[in-house]
Amino acid sequence: MNQSYEEMLNRAYLSIPKKAQTHERFEIPRAESMIQGNKTIVRGINELIKTMRREKKHFLKYLMKETALPLSEGNNQIIINGKVGAIQLNRLIENYFKQYILCHECGKPDTNLTTQGGVQTIKCEACGAIKPVSM
Ligand SMILES: [Zn+2]
């Protein structure tokens, strides 16, 4: 028996049951943040934005509006010019998902933000539901 490593890997892979399409509830990601002096630094935002499937500037605009604080971004982080606690920040992210990403019908995050006749709407790719949004 002289099994190559690759064969072993293949065997291990094949023994995994065919991908069970579980429709788990979408988990809203949490941001890692820290307060430095009078500033709040939110880290790893590229990953967060990728999960959102929204334009970064849309999320930044939302954050700025909700915190009423100026902010800047760069180097995979957001720097908020003020103190925003981790709980408050994650609540804002949660609300962003609820308002602009998650489908109000089926709760899935597979939605697109589009403008129809001057009105911003989110359209769900999974069930087709459309909801107008304010920003
Ligand atoms: Zn839906």
From TrEMBL:
<feature type="domain" description="Translation initiation factor IF2/IF5">
    <location>
        <begin position="23"/>
        <end position="130"/>
    </location>
</feature>
<protein>
    <submittedName>
        <fullName>Translation initiation factor IF-2 subunit beta</fullName>
    </submittedName>
</protein>
<comment type="similarity">
    <text>Belongs to the eIF-2-beta/eIF-5 family.</text>
</comment>
<dbReference type="InterPro" id="IPR045196">
    <property type="entry name" value="IF2/IF5"/>
</dbReference>
<dbReference type="InterPro" id="IPR016189">
    <property type="entry name" value="Transl_init_fac_IF2/IF5_N"/>
</dbReference>
<dbReference type="Pfam" id="PF01873">
    <property type="entry name" value="eIF-5_eIF-2B"/>
</dbReference>
<dbReference type="InterPro" id="IPR016190">
    <property type="entry name" value="Transl_init_fac_IF2/IF5_Zn-bd"/>
</dbReference>
<dbReference type="GO" id="GO:0003743">
    <property type="term" value="F:translation initiation factor activity"/>
</dbReference>
<keyword id="KW-0396">Initiation factor</keyword>
<dbReference type="InterPro" id="IPR002735">
    <property type="entry name" value="Transl_init_fac_IF2/IF5_dom"/>
</dbReference>
<keyword id="KW-0648">Protein biosynthesis</keyword>
